[in-house]
Every structure is written in structure tokens, then in C-alpha cells.
């Protein structure tokens, strides 16, 4: 009986610890292969998903991944989307000065350039300029760095068509509803060119690198002012970069270095 009296408080203490275990809610897009997508069973998969799980494991916290539409991610960090308040976002968000006013960023966890995609031989230029593609319809995903870049550089000479998700954008390109689209080179290469829908399409022009629009790489977005969580993510990121976990995840999805 005495043993039971000793064991019960200890068991209750363990149970309380389990209940109070820290849980972080992390926004992922789920519509941006190979970084994040939904498989046939309805499960999230992709590079961002594996990176999120690796970071949470390193931080020794429970993480709940929350699928959020791209243009709702920053509002969700601010708690402005009903039912989808999140602590951080791992969704290949470019670190730009404009976004730094709205959220805090970790160190970069990837750094991939922008590229145009079009039907093979449709845009036969090494350097793409507004004049060379005048009147061609250009597709972009709404509220992205690509949207801002194309709007600033090409809207005066070409119609800009905006899509809520990358899947809708590439479907429009495949159907000929737009002449070209701009996207991350890795997402476009693996998520479109390497799929049946991407047959007969190609990268066109050269890599587009403009720090004013595309920043300094892609980082994890944290709710503004939560510097403690940002620093914890940075420490965890440094560990998985150093111990080979990041490289192992990268090799699973890509044949080249995206960091």
C-alpha cells in the first residue's frame, strides 16, 4: 500500500509532464512539390516536411504541421486566420526586406534562384527582357516574390495572370492559357518538368537573381517578436547542417545542393 502511495504521485507527475509537453504549430503549403505536397493517402510529404520534422526532433518538441494556403501563411502567423494560428512556417519563403517588416526569419535553410518556364523553343532567348516577350501572358503564383518581380518588370508590356497555387499555374501553362511562368527553379524542375504534364516544356532564359525581390535565400518565418523561438530554430538548423541530417534529406529529393 505504501508502495502504491509512492508510485501514484510519481505517475501523476509523469502524466502532467506529458500533458504539458511543448507543441509547436508549423505552417506548410502542401501544394509545392517537391518541397511539400499531399500524397495519395492524404499525408504531407516533401523536403520542407522532412526538414520540419528533423528540426522538431532536434529541439525535442512536438510539432503539428498545418496546411495553409500560401497567401494565408503570414496572416496565420499573426493569428488572423480562424483555426490556423501557427508559430512558424517552413514553406520556402524568401527572406526579403519587405517581409522582415511582417515576420522574423531564421538563417536561410535553402537558396534557389528564380527561372522562367515555357513550351520548348517558345522563348528562344538566353536573356529574357520585357521587350522580347512583349504581349506574352506570364503566369505567377499570387503574393510571391515572383509575382512582385514580374509585376514590377513586365506588367507594362505583358498581361500578368495570377494563380492561388503553383499546381493551378502549371496546369494553365500546360493548357496554353499562359505563355510562360516564373517560379523557383527546383520547384519547377521537379514539380513540373519531371512530370507527365511537363513533357515538351523547358527552362528558358537564365537564372533570375535580384536581391531586391528575391532576398538572401529562403528561411523559416517566425511570428514577429518571438526571437527566442527564432534562435532555437537557428541552433537546431546549425546542428542538422553539421551532423549530416540536412544533407541526407537533401539527397532524398535533389541531385544537387540547394543550400
In short:
The chain is of the alpha/beta class and 259 residues long. The protein is 38% helix and 26% strand. The chain has two domains: 20-111 and 216-253, D-Maltodextrin-Binding Protein, domain 2, CATH 3.40.190.10; 114-214, Periplasmic binding protein-like II (D-Maltodextrin-Binding Protein, domain 2).
Commentary on this structure:
With 259 residues, the chain is an alpha/beta fold. It has two domains: 20-111 and 216-253, D-Maltodextrin-Binding Protein, domain 2 (3-Layer(aba) Sandwich); 114-214, D-Maltodextrin-Binding Protein, domain 2 (3-Layer(aba) Sandwich), CATH 3.40.190. It is 38% helix and 26% strand. It is built from ten helices and 13 strands. The strands form three sheets. The protein has a five-stranded mixed beta sheet with strand order 5-1-6-13-7. Strands 10-9-11-8-12 form a five-stranded mixed beta sheet, sandwiched between helices. Helix 5 links the parallel strand 9 and strand 10 (160-163). Helix 2 (47-59) runs antiparallel to helix 10 (245-253). Mean pLDDT is 92; it is low at 1-19.
Average of pLDDT? 92
Low-confidence stretches: 1-19
- The order of strands across the largest sheet is 5-1-6-13-7
CATH superfamily of the largest domain: Periplasmic binding protein-like II
> Helical percent range?
25-40%
The outline comes out as: globular
State the total count of DSSP E strands: 13
Q: Do you know the CATH topology of the largest domain?
A: D-Maltodextrin-Binding Protein, domain 2
Supply Rg.
21 Å
| Biggest pleated-sheet summary | 5 strands, mixed
Work out the strand percent.
25-35%
Q: State the name of the first-level CATH class of the largest domain.
A: Alpha Beta
Q: What is the string of helix and strand elements?
A: HEEEEHEHEHEEEHEHEHEHEHH
CATH architecture classification of the largest domain:
3-Layer(aba) Sandwich
Number of helices: 10
Q: Structural class given helices, strands, pairing?
A: alpha/beta
Number of domains: 2
What separation lies between the terminal Cα atoms? 60 Å
